[in-house]
DNA sequence: TGTGTTCTCGTAAACGTTTACGGAAAAACG
DNA sequence: CGTTTTTCCGTAAACGTTTACGAGAACACA
């Protein structure tokens, strides 16, 4: 179906055009442009001038083919299903940081989107197998993640935003300290007199749900509070899921006096359920959200939440990824780095 | 700096491997895979089986080089400056629709991000000149947009989300009917008894700001209300800008009784200014926002707003773009389509 | 002057595809 | 059986790069 596209560009000059124009060989032109040593100083000068004059820039397909590298990194962005109208604002600042650091290394960032419903595996395979990118960055890691299994089995370079139990220690990862956030949230609530604290998290095997719960449990134990399974609930990771599961928890015979939500969308749905029951966050119940978004801030009452520093995280993960790839890393060779970053509590009106 | 990356992939089999394995020529293999007519039915069968067995998939760089087309479309995503913590949720559903339709044509979507502050021109040139994509999609169109000038001068295929005065009728565009939304907003407010209605919009030469104002003016005239320049104000397109300009307008001697904000972030900042002055939207003043986001919905009071249907718009713009490219379009040849879609009023509590 | 080094450049192959062309074999037709 | 058409496949060039190799010229040194 597709033939030549954009072939009529007047600005599409090749290395051959430069060579012909200067009456030298294409080899010399290429060496001059790539800054190799074995080219005379003033032929290099002439080549660079001609390149500017003829508006030359290298064809990336040709270069990729020859070098076996595309100089682009793929980020797999997966919209959540049921996330009807608007997507996750979470990723934009992260991507901003990621892209900025990659640009320092002259690498392009390419965001690959999947259909909202289906899982990413197919799209990921496509990127890898057709060699559209040199490495990929994964997000929304699951506890057992077949994308990670696939990539490490294939020996394809990648890094993850979020940890997983899959793949061992073979890839760099950067995660938020959900465990500590869960712990601190409980700490804060206990200090304010709460003993019946509910934990609401997404199902789907998303790994941060487990980490959060670990911290929650650990803090309860430290305070000598028995963990009540009836206060721990999973739901679909969107507003409807949060509504549903919150309603369930609040209808149990022994209600919690505080809820920690592991996701902002679920918190919003939960608050809707609370409102319908006449229960006011900040007055009748305490609410804390683990990952802050603008919605938490503008909601009424404004929700107390733990906030990550997304843009620096994006920058850092780019560095970690690059350091793990032999062809990019310095003489020391590849290094696998894993980091877990703290969150900052933003105290507002809901607890 | 970069050498071979991922070259050790066990799954990287080429068309030569297939040919050797089957003892036929690479030409035949290629023809079989591409479904050409001049290949025997069972050699095609054997090729397809071998391709599956050896896990073959074509190297995109090789294919792109030969065909002069990359089979990918670039979307230029530009985070607004000062948009500190979280970015625009606006684009995710739009991109979801765009990607879905492109996938139907076996095209990849590649989102190219720029630095938050600087303008996109440089990054755009890079994509075009290194021929990383076959076409691009632009957003945040300005009234005079040098990206559009550049692309149409270069003869590079593109489409825009939003109109512009640049480039003439040479490219497809899909826009929201800001004019009508501004008109309807005034209508609604006048029907509720307002006569002093302020219009607050972004500066930056963003085109939708002009369109909105046209509708606003037209509706006022229709109702026989004189346009008061003191009620029209421009500000930086973020919360701080909205705060600033709203405070200014409210400090004028003859205050408005209603405000139409042309941007959600500015509306949020404006409401903060109002709150500090003890003015309550929905009681002491009416507030309407032109483009709805989840923030409008969760804000307190929930903001009345006009909502676009972003995902269908993404799908439609993909179709329009493809129809405009000779190599993609059907036998009728290229067609330039321009569409303007209506918004839906979501009445909430602020007016 | 002869020999060895250093600079500089051209030649050609290679990366993985697709495709125009031609030719051999098979089929169709008289 | 001879001729023409059809079917099928191999050959080779081409897309735009990079780079290993070698060779000529200039230079240094004895």
Automatic annotation (TrEMBL), chains A, B:
Residues 13-67 form the HTH lacI-type domain. GO terms for molecular function: DNA-binding transcription factor activity; transcription cis-regulatory region binding. The keyword Transcription applies. Pfam families: LacI, Peripla_BP_3. It comes from the Bacteria. Keywords: DNA-binding, Transcription, Transcription regulation. SUPFAM superfamilies: lambda repressor-like DNA-binding domains, Periplasmic binding protein-like I. The keyword Cytoplasm does not apply. This is Transcriptional regulator, LacI family. It comes from Mesorhizobium qingshengii.
């Amino acid at each position: 179906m597709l033939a030549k596209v954009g072939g009529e560009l007047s600005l599409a000059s090749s290395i051959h055009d430069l060579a012909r124009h200067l009456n030298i060989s294409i080899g010399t032109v290429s060496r001059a442009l790539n800054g190799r040593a074995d080219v005379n100083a003033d032929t290099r000068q002439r080549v660079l001038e001609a390149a500017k004059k003829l508006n030359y820039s290298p064809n990336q397909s040709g270069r990729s083919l020859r070098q076996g590298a595309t100089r682009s990194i793929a980020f797999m962005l997966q919209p959540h299903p049921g996330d009807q109208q608007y997507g996750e604002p979470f990723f934009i600042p992260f991507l901003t940081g990621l892209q900025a650091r990659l640009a320092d290394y002259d690498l392009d960032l390419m965001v690959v989107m999947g259909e909202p419903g289906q899982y990413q595996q197919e799209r990921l395979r496509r990127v890898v197998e057709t060699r559209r990118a040199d490495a990929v960055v994964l997000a929304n890691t699951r506890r057992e993640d077949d994308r990670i299994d696939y990539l490490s089995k294939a020996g394809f370079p990648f890094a993850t935003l979020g940890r997983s139990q899959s793949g061992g220690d073979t890839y760099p990862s950067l995660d938020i300290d959900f465990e500590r956030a869960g712990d601190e949230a409980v700490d804060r609530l206990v200090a304010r007199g709460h003993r019946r604290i509910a934990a609401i998290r997404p199902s789907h095997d998303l790994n941060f749900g487990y980490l959060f719960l670990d911290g929650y449990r650990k803090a309860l134990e430290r305070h000598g509070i028995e963990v009540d399974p009836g206060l721990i609930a999973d739901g679909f990771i969107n507003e409807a899921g949060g509504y549903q599961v919150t309603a369930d928890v609040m209808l149990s015979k022994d209600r919690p006096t505080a809820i920690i939500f592991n996701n902002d969308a679920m918190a919003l749905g939960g608050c809707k359920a609370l409102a319908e029951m006449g229960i006011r966050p900040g007055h009748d119940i305490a609410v804390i959200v683990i990952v802050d978004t603008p919605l938490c801030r503008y909601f009424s009452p404004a929700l107390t939440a733990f906030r990550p520093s997304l843009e620096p995280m994006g920058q850092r993960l780019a560095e970690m990824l690059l350091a793990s790839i032999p062809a990019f890393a310095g003489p020391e060779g590849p290094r696998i780095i894993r980091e877990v970053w703290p969150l900052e509590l933003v105290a507002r009106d809901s607890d």
